[in-house]
Write a structure and sequence with these properties.
By secondary structure, this protein is of the alpha+beta class. The protein is about 70% helix and about 10% strand. Helix 1 (about 1-65) packs antiparallel against helix 2 and helix 2 (about 70-100) runs antiparallel to helix 3.
């Protein structure tokens, strides 16, 4: 009887120790995950701020000189900004799918996209550039087809070099709401190509055909 009692006590102590060790490991894992997530968020926020500062310089140049003298420079800079902004958007989207993303960071990024779009429009007008600009309005909480439509847009972008700007209407942003109001966006997904709102969903081929029009 004493032997059985001793065995039970040892088993209970082992279970307790195993539980405590598991809890510690879980806690360390959670803490490490949170620190990594915080670090990534801070890095993305710093990238947004860096691009924002670069945009201020570009916008200032456009305000100071309305002649086409700087067109080559502006066009080159826009190409660089487009690559940086698109890559940043992909990273934010990837993070959002995995663990979620701070709405304020997403809002800052979308404000950056609006400014990119407006400046690109000005360069098209001033410099006679022919870069297609695509606006893509989505809802991250109520749109089952938005992800697939986004994949079609990405494929079309790779084939045409068009600039694609994605806006999540679930995130509060006055600039984005104003832009959506201009094109009377009321359902998602909605696509605007070169200032013309498109009807229904589109395949990559249809988007390419419309862009090359």
């Amino acid at each position: 009887m004493e032997l059985q009692k001793t065995k039970r006590e040892i088993s209970w102590k082992l279970y307790t120790a195993a539980f405590i060790i598991s809890a510690i490991i879980f806690g360390i894992g959670m803490w490490t995950g949170l620190q990594i997530e915080k670090s990534v968020t801070e890095e993305l926020s710093a990238t947004v701020n860096k691009i924002d500062q670069q945009w201020i310089s570009l916008e200032t140049l456009m305000l100071m000189d309305s002649s086409p003298a700087f067109c080559d420079y502006l066009t080159q800079e826009m190409g660089s900004f487009d690559s940086e902004t698109f890559t940043l958007g992909q990273r934010i989207g990837y993070m959002e799918e995995r663990k979620g993303v701070d709405p304020s960071l997403k809002s800052e990024y979308m404000s950056l996209e609006v400014r990119d779009y407006l400046v690109a429009n000005k360069i098209n007008e001033r410099c006679g550039a022919n870069t297609s600009l695509v606006l893509y309005f989505v809802s991250s909480s109520n749109c089952s087809s938005c992800k697939e439509q986004g994949a079609q847009l990405t494929a079309a972008r790779e084939r045409t070099g068009a600039r694609v700007y994605t806006f999540d209407m679930d995130v509060k942003n006055g600039m984005v709401s104003a832009l959506a109001g201009v094109f009377k966006i009321g359902s998602y997904p909605s696509i605007v190509i070169d200032s013309e709102k498109q009807a229904g969903r589109m395949t990559a081929d249809q988007i390419v055909s419309r862009i090359n029009g």
